[in-house]
Design goal:
The complex is a heterodimer of chains A (about 260) and B (about 260). With about 260 residues, chain A is mainly alpha-helical. In chain A, about 75% of the residues lie in helices and about 0% in strands. The radius of gyration of chain A is 19 Å and the shape is globular. Chain B has helices spanning about 20-30, 60-70, 90-95, 115-125, 130-140, 155-170, 185-205, 215-220, 240-245, 250-260, and strands at about 1-15, 30-45, 50-55, 75-80, 95-100, 175-180, 205-210, 225-230, 230-240. The chains are: A mainly alpha (about 260), B alpha/beta (about 260).
Chain lengths: ~260, ~260
């Protein structure tokens, strides 16, 4: 952990070298992020509710998804650019250093400009939390925290899967973006509005709905069972296959070298 | 001590052919070609030796180095470095080796070199006293005084290479792998780097394995030469012996003649 902070410092220092770029980047991210919110808002100018959710309730969803995604994009950036690490030989360097491989990939890159999105998410929360009609008790607060934290972990797992694919092929990796960036885009609304098929896929295969849709039902008291409160924790299980897949890719890399 | 016995390594390389039709075909069925990167490689390197590992491009030098560093696993055969199998005990193994890839940097590009050094110190858990001793010594011998305060991206190639070498020695490794450490350097920097490597070997007994295409590196540094071609060790002998064989010829010509002789 201490070493992670050292990496953190050196990454921050590196990015501060280009202050103008850094600030512009943050600014651009904030603007972009507000465009996302505007999209939701325009939708609600025409319809009063979507599948029984009001605007502030949907925005609560938007903020949860955006914030989880921003967190994982900031801190798991090393996996996001993993094909590049493989291509330019930086990964070889990681292998000749006496620390865990996953740790080093994680620590090698952090993209602080992405935190601009976080700012936006906080704003949206400020609007959505009081207006969503949720009766905020301690268990609801905990649920919300779980949603964001576990959401970040699910996106993080997706980035690991993406990186693991890079061990096998350098082409066609974009299809993973449907799940990562697509997951964020679709996650502006509760995942259930896309129909049962999609919801089932996002529950059992790629557990995006587990940190977003189901706990949202708990927040809105549409479901009262505590099981719905803890579904985000179940989503954490997704880390295991992601990790296993990465190990498998690493084994292959060590035997083929490419 | 490094021992390689009967190391074999084969790569499967996808055949690519020109033309659109063929490219479409390749989407469905690919033809693979087996490339024998290493066949039956054997050698032993004792502690404190300096060995020049030479051979033409694509002969298998990097593959061997990668196996000794624990980056690659061979198909068959055994490899032990100080009693450890590199790819099985990666973490324990890499703690004892230093690696310089001449063409790639290990420094963090945008921060002063000293920041990189400190992070490397923490990665290797070098204790403060040893770190200070090593750093002082390296700074003096490689003349790094002012350089370490500069970000790596603004260094000249020669300055950067000196920093790269220092970065690989901060944790006092027993074995140092140098992959083309003098590539692209000017005469002065080359000489400085060579002198330093010689000194490091003499004073600390560091085992040095050097791959290079620069025969002057070989002449200045190593007593023993390993020649590899088409994945096989073709020659393992002393530099003096080689020189005697060549008579009046320069070392470069001798090696070129060897490449021709073995048709590699």
């Amino acid at each position: 952990m201490k070493l992670y902070l050292k990496y953190f410092a050196i990454n921050l220092k590196s990015q501060m070298q280009y202050k103008a770029t850094f600030l512009l980047n943050i600014f651009a991210r904030i603007v972009l992020a507000f465009a996302t919110v505007a999209g939701v808002w325009f939708m609600f100018l025409r319809f009063n509710e979507v599948e029984g959710f009001t605007l502030p309730q949907v925005l609560l969803c938007t903020a949860v998804t955006t914030m989880s995604f921003a967190l994982s994009e900031t801190f798991a950036r090393g996996f996001d650019i993993f094909p590049r690490l493989l291509g330019n030989g930086q990964f070889d360097r990681i292998l000749v250093r006496p620390r865990g491989v996953i740790f080093q990939v994680l620590a090698s890159q952090m993209e602080f400009a992405r935190l601009g999105i976080l700012v936006q998410a906080v704003f949206v929360f400020c609007y959505a939390i009081p207006n969503s009609g949720v009766h905020w008790t301690w268990d609801k607060v905990l649920t919300l925290v779980l949603m964001v934290a576990c959401g970040a972990a699910v996106f993080f797992s997706l980035f690991i899967v993406y990186a693991a694919f890079a061990f096998f092929t350098t082409e066609g990796l974009e299809f993973m973006n449907i799940l990562t960036h697509g997951g964020r885009e679709f996650g502006r609304y509760p995942y259930a509005i896309y129909g049962n098929g999609v919801l089932r896929f996002l529950t059992f295969v790629v557990p995006l709905a587990l940190f977003q849709y189901y706990p949202l039902l708990y927040l809105l008291e549409k479901e009262r069972s505590v099981l719905y409160m803890f579904t985000p924790l179940i989503a954490l299980l997704f880390l295991l296959p992601a990790y296993g897949f990465f190990r498998l890719g690493l084994r292959r890399f060590k035997s083929t070298g490419s | 001590m490094i021992v390689l016995e009967n190391i074999n390594k084969t790569f499967r390389v996808a055949k690519r052919q020109a033309g659109f039709g063929r490219a479409v075909k390749a989407l469905f069925s690919r033809e693979y070609e087996l490339v024998h990167a290493l066949s039956d490689v054997n050698f032993k390197i004792h502690d404190g030796e300096m060995v020049g590992y030479i051979g033409p491009n694509g002969a298998g030098k990097s593959t061997t180095i990668k196996i000794m560093c624990g980056i690659l696993t061979p198909d068959s055969g055994s490899c032990e470095v100080d009693g450890r199998v590199p790819w099985k005990e990666r973490v324990a193994h890499v703690r004892e080796i230093g690696v310089v890839f001449g063409q790639r940097s290990q420094l963090w590009w945008d921060v002063p070199v000293i920041d990189s050094f400190e992070l490397i110190r923490d990665i290797y858990k070098v204790d403060q006293k040893r770190y200070k001793n090593n750093l002082d010594e390296l700074t003096e011998l490689l003349d790094l005084g002012e350089i370490v305060k500069t970000p790596a991206r603004s260094l000249s190639l020669g300055q950067r290479m000196r920093c790269e070498i220092a970065a690989s020695l901060l944790h006092s490794p027993r074995t140092l792998f140098l992959d083309e450490p003098t590539i692209g350097l000017d005469a002065v920097s080359k000489i400085a780097v060579r002198q330093f490597i010689r000194k490091q070997n003499a004073e600390h007994g560091t085992t040095v394995i050097l791959t290079t295409h620069d025969m002057q590196d070989i002449e200045a540094l190593t007593e023993r030469i390993l020649l590899i071609g088409k994945g096989q060790i073709l020659l393992d002998g002393s530099l003096d012996e080689l020189k005697r064989r060549g008579g009046e010829q320069k070392i470069e010509e001798i090696v070129a003649a060897l490449y021709k002789e073995y048709q590699i």
